[in-house]
Specification:
Elements lengths: L4 E9 L4 E8 L4 E7 L11 H10 L1
Antiparallel strand pairs: 1-2, 2-3
Amino acid sequence: MRTVIQEVVANIDDKASEIVLLIHWIGGAHTELRLPKRRRGQRNSTSTDIIAAIRQLC
């Protein structure tokens, strides 16, 4: 991927509570990617189904 991405610029849109990534591709194309910001105290946790499946594999 590093050979096709020239630069990634990150900004924060406080009104929308999003992180905005602007990807500059080699060749001049641009892609905007918007991700939700985590709120204070918010945690991402792994689903119990996924944990159970991994335990079965071990």
